Amino acid sequence: MRRLFPYTLLFVLAACGGSEGRIATEPPKVAAAPGSAAPDTPALAPPRAADSTVPAGNEYVTCYVLVADTGMQYAPLRASMMDLRGPLRQEVDTMGRGWNAAKALIALPDNDEDEIYAGDYYPRRYPTTTLSLEYLDFYDTAAPEKRIAVVAGIYESKAGADSALRVLRPLRPGAFVLKSEIYMGCMH
Fold first, then answer.
1. In terms of residue numbers, what domain contains 130?
2. Is residue 11 in a domain?
3. Looking at residue 74, which CATH number applies to its domain?
4. Cβ partners under 8 Å of residue 41, min gap 6
5. Which are the contacts of 62, defined by CB distance < 8 A and separation ≥ 6?
6. Count of structural domains within the chain
7. Largest distance between two CA atoms of the chain
8. 183 in a structural domain
9. Rounded distance, CA 133 to CA 97, Å?
10. Which of 10, 51, 70, 92 has the most CB atoms less than 10 A away?
11. pLDDT in tens, 121-171
């Protein structure tokens, strides 16, 4: 029994770790137009990356979520998100999720390798400047259930989120920053 404990501990730690626990340190890049000599240019400023891991002992972290748009219909919000890619010079990261019409849910595929969340919604939780569609009530408990948000970034500092908001606001006048306590603990 004593021999199994270290292996079990390693298994649990591996299941709760992974690349999602890392914070992006480089902003997304956009390649120069064909025939242009301009180098790649960064998109919105990346989240502050003072530390590359989640703080130990704290399951929740205060983050600032940049929301470009919200609504109840997936298709128009997805189109809105895709329209922002070019002007913001940001990548879209669906995390493998898409619209599951049978469940009326943003979800991982039913056959996803993550057996716990396969066929279900798994939220974006870590600082990033990628665009994605998320359920707003994960970040704001007062939001209506199933309200979808076009998230244009999750920032560690209010100043970083406000700076990105100034870039986004001319494109989406209703954009806003939401202060959120995001659970960073293991979700398995």
1. 59-97+123-188
2. no
3. 3.30.70
4. 29, 30, 32, 89
5. 179, 180, 181, 182
6. 1
7. 65
8. yes
9. 9
10. 70
11. 999 999 999 999 999 999 999 999 999 999 999 999 999 999 999 999 999
